[in-house]
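Subject: sequence -> structure tokens, single chain

Hey, anyone have a minute? Need the predicted structure for the following. Not urgent.
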Amino acid sequence: MFSDLLGNLDEIAVRELQECFAEIASGTRSFGPMEEWKTWYHYLLAALLPRSHEACFSYLLESLMTGFMAIYPNGVSREPYEGFREDVLLTLGRCMMDGMCWNGTDIAIGNILRQSNDNPNRVWLWWDASGDFSASMFFCLKYLPESLVEPWLRSVFDIPSPHWRAQVVVWLVGAHGILNGTMRWPSEFSLEARPYIGWEWSHCLEAGLTVADDSGASPVAALIPEAARTAMLDVVRSYFSEDRFLEWGACIATVPYLEAELAEIPSTFATLYVR
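Reply:
Had a minute. Here:
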């Protein structure tokens, strides 16, 4: 069906590549794992990491991560080669830190997170989590060893960019149900939620993937391991004192459209997390 993949991948448009990953994720959900999809996914992953920030409505990074989670719903228990899991964490898991994504300590606007405000209302939609950010947060939480969750999360909090901090606040509010265990899978996200934290084809990620997985791993109960989400909640609540929260609010307020678009979300964050 996708014979163009046998040619030069650099010549294939992002939208067409996104369709390939959609077939892999939705096909695995609907019909179970197939070696053809796994083989093609691994090939595309290695070849397309340099293009992960290209976008057509959504970033290619989102599709790469959805495909990975669909193929490895119970964790990476059977590696294609020794060291694969670590390689993926050091590449796909770090895409948001690519040099092209940053201007000093602030994001390179348009290269990650919200792409533009080119719409009739001239809004960026900062009240929702950008798909690349949300997918990356869930990806690292799911696949990082438990011992690395706390230092990784503190490194996320250490970034002083107002745009980045706004996304952290938005994502933590939207992800509260996953983090406290009342929600288990992205398939449960509501499109009407404020904030919305879904990403490209994240609705394909559901419990059925875990029982169909043929890797031999025991089915997991939720996308995020209980130890990881508990550790994350502990770090968030210990980090955000009232003074720290006010500091973040002042930082976000230096960009007027961020403060305006987030509206009541920081207050909700304070209710959920600030001690």
